[in-house]
Amino acid sequence: MALAVPQEAITDVQFRLGSLYVTFHVTHDEDISQEEMAHRIEEYPFREMWRLYNQRDGAPDGLDAALQRLKDLEMELKDKNRELDKERGDKEQKVNELKKQLQALQEELAGPVAEREQSLLQQLGKEQGARKKAETQLKVVDDERKKLLEAVKQEKLRTEKSAQRHNDLIAAIIQENKKEKEAKEREHNEQMEVKDYIIENLKSQLRTRTNGSASPRNSIIDFDQTEEFNRLMERMEDMAAVLQRTQESENQARAQIQRLSDLLKESEEARQAESVSYDNNVAALTQQIHSYRDTKIAEDHERRAKEDRQRGRGSVSEALKENATIVRQYTTSLENLIVSLQDRLHAISEEYNNYLTEAEAGVSHERQILAEQDEDSKKTRQTFRSSSIALQKIYWGSREPEAQEIIQNLDAAASNAEKSSAAVRVVIAMLDSKARAFGDHRNWMEQQQRMMRELLTSLRDLNQRAFDRQRALMDERVSKA
């Protein structure tokens, strides 16, 4: 380094005295003189190397202190990992013990329940037989009610059809009477026109008779007109009789229409009365069915209670309540146990998460310290390099062995600083790997916690179904007994 020769020019390197002394051969360029080489050696800096050498037995500082701190932290991390593994084993053992306790509790629950199962099944069969008998009776009553409803519905349809026929007949009669009335009105109008014509003709004849002469010819004419007048009068009397008969027929038709309207009104009132009566009958029949069903149920309950009292036993409802109480107690115990397991699992998860958080914070802090030490090492290495170059310039051409040793020591210190920097980077990479491992541990713990929660939920649902089934069997036994 002092002579600025390439690495290929240095051969036969040999270290002695624990790498404190080294010998080697150097091939120099021909254009460099002996004086210039001595001058370069004299200017090469060696004071810092000697200072470091003199402090070799002192307390470590700089990168050495950082490496020592790193070793201590690694030892602490190993101790914590061992403690964590031990605690994890203890927790798994506790979980296994809780599972065994849960299994024992389930076996204990199946014992007393099985003792009453047969009697409950017998009593339930008896209750089901009574219920089927009551359902059969209710079905018969319901069929009768349906038949009555169908009969009432048919009668209602028949009444509606009869009313429709009456309405159609009345409408046809009214239409026919209307046509007949119009025809008679036309005939009456024609007769009135003829009558008016005859009256006018008679008036003109009377005026002619009053103003006419008394000749024989006029007498003959008057005689003829008198006969014609008599015929007209007879015709008018006939027309008056026809008009009177027409008015009488019209009055009769109006009376018939009024009578048919009254009949239609009475039929509508009767239909409404029948509809109200039908609704009342349906309501009364439904009430009778409900009353009959309630009576039968009450009689069955009374009969079963009497039989139970005669056998010296409590009622079925009391036995069912007792079964419900037993199942509820076991369900409550199981729920409390599962809640305790969930709380303990949550506490373990929180504790492990806190440990991982603290470990990640410690690793991050150590990485930051090592990064700062790496920066300081870079600065120290640059200082060694610049000091070596400055000493080479100062002692250039000098043959003093101390100067050469100082320059060599500075170069060696720079090399050691480079090696230490590489070691620090390796340690930083290891810390990054540990940080990623902590993240993987966190994910694994969350996955295990989720699986445990799902397992506890499934266990709760399974036991709840088992308890419900067991209670149903117990109730069935009570019913059959």
TrEMBL record:
- Region (Disordered) residue ranges read 298-317
| Source organism, top-level taxon | Eukaryota
Basic and acidic residues bias located where?
298-311
Coiled-coil residue spans: 63-194, 243-273
> Where is each Flagellar attachment zone protein 1 conserved domain found?
2-56
What Pfam family is a match for this entry?
FAZ1_cons
Instruction: Extract one GO cellular component term from the record.
Output: cytoskeleton
Q: Which InterPro entries match?
A: FAZ1_cons
Q: Which UniProt keywords apply?
A: Coiled coil
User: What is the name of the protein in this document?
Assistant: Flagellar attachment zone protein 1 conserved domain-containing protein
What species is given as this protein's source?
A: Leishmania major
What lineage does the source organism belong to?
Eukaryota, Discoba, Euglenozoa, Kinetoplastea, Metakinetoplastina
